[in-house]
């Protein structure tokens, strides 16, 4: 089985031209587990493993595919909370349970090997290890299917959350700053996308005008879209609709970054099924074609990325995606950028110039009508802010919008192409879906 | 509470040795004539390690932007909250920036655009880090 470092699947350079498999790969199914705030450490039907099995079964059911037909499994095996996930981020060395929960695998970690065994997938020929996050995994799957490394591929993205305050353990509890953290942690930067974006956001407001709280309409709309997404955290737990008053009165985390600018860590899993366009046409759902995938991992120049650097990175990512898809800003109907922290989406919106939004215009755009019923249904998924930190709402909504099955979230404008991403400005990936292969 | 204590590695040892002598030295690529911080194995611009050497800089800069950490994740810094975290650009090359807690400046009262100069702060016996203070 090919390892990612041996398989050159990424489209992560400028000037690669139109993707060679454009319209020849399709997404044929998806499935979500319930979205819980945390795993309680006891409910065996709510472990990350149990939820990943459930998500895979739903994705296969959605596509009308049997387990013996699966020949590719791409599963992210890193705990989303990482090494600093909190007091309980490493469940070990607590006593384990009966098989298949007799180790960390299946409880707080999931990998392809464990899933293949539990699901009885006997014909898998592509199951790489050490795979990246969902932002790149979908591209990896599309490329692997296009390259015929597999024909029917499950992509699984588990997102874990355990008891204790998120990311307050591990290296964040250390008195020493090691490795790259020697340049950031002594002054208080614990490392993360919040810090990456909040300084450029400050510069953005200063350069273009506007206040931090001008993000409120965007955040509130994300929550609204989340409440229209039945599987998401907010809808599941009937979280009251966020209001302007709630937003402006919320406490600061990294002032001016507010509590409601940050997504809510959750325990959940999602799965997507990729196959060839030819095969997808015979499956249960109308195919959602992949028109391009692209990745980026831009090197930061110095300690803190500034506005110029962030705008340059996102401009380059947009050019790569548009070039590979053979499309431009006016061709994109659905736009689901990543929103794990609110002051980041504007950089993507303006780089991709969705609905003509140029640099410095996002805050005014947010103040307009961005509801799903309106003319500019920005981020119709509700993203992470509206659904919890699953990092998958952007993909699922894009698929549903193109299928025409988004229910009350279904946009009123044309829905034939969709851009979705899990990415920071510096690293991650984009994928372009199409209702039609051309 | 003292700040976190940086742990030097092979690449960064000369930098921290200089800081402990109250000097600020950065990598300089003679081929590109560019300063570089944090230290890297190769020049960020030309990609070559061949022309990198340490160069002492004046330690003058300006405050480009700031935030106030009110609910950070670093356990050691929790008692300090709220505290400023500024992005300081180096006058000799504004493409190079540093973090600073701006000692002496109250949270939320940061003069963005003000001139700063490097200073040094003890985080453990004999262990310094570089900081930046507003020039009066």
Give the structure's gist in a few sentences.
The complex is a heterodimer of chains A (438) and B (136). With 438 residues, chain A is of the alpha+beta class.
Which labels suit this protein?
A: alpha+beta; Peroxisomal Thiolase, Chain A, domain 1; eight-stranded mixed sheet; two-stranded antiparallel sheet; 29% helix; globular; B: 136 residues; mainly beta; five-stranded antiparallel sheet; three-stranded antiparallel sheet; 1 helix; 9 strands
Tell me the strand order in the biggest sheet of chain A: 2-3-7-1-8-11-10-9
Question: What is the fourth-level CATH superfamily of the domain at 25-165 and 265-280 in chain A?
Answer: Thiolase/Chalcone synthase
Order of helices and strands of chain A: EHEHHEEHHHHEEEHEHEHHHHEE
Overall shape of chain B:
globular
SS element count, helices of chain B: 1
Query: How large is the share of residues in beta strands of chain B?
Result: 35-45%
Q: Please, what is the oligomeric state?
A: heterodimer
Q: Which descriptor suits the 3D outline of chain A?
A: globular
N/C terminus separation of chain A: 32 Å
Largest sheet of chain A: 8 strands, mixed
Helix and strand element order of chain B:
EHEEEEEEEE
Helix content of chain A: 25-40%
Characterization of the model:
The complex is a heterodimer of chains A (438) and B (136). Chain A is an alpha+beta fold and 438 residues long. In chain A, 29% of the residues lie in helices and 15% in strands. Chain A has 13 helices and eleven strands. In chain A, a hairpin with a 1-residue loop joins β5 (252-255) and β6. In chain A, α1 packs across α2 (112-119) and α9 (307-325) crosses α10. With 136 residues, chain B is mostly beta strands. Chain B has one domain (13-134). In chain B, strands 7-6-5-8-9 form a five-stranded antiparallel beta sheet, with helices on one face. Chain B has a three-stranded antiparallel beta sheet with strand order 3-2-4. In chain B, β8 and β9 form a beta hairpin. The longest helix of chain B is centred in the first third of the chain and has 8 residues, at 13-20. Chain B starts with a strand and ends with a strand. The model of chain B has no long low-confidence stretch (mean pLDDT 97). Classes of the chains: A alpha+beta (438), B mainly beta (136). The A-B interface holds A 84, 167-168, 172-190, 198-199, 202-203, 206, 251-257, 299, 301-304, 306 and B 3-9, 12, 36-38, 44, 64-77, 80, 82-83, 85, 87, 95-101, 108, 112, 123, 129.
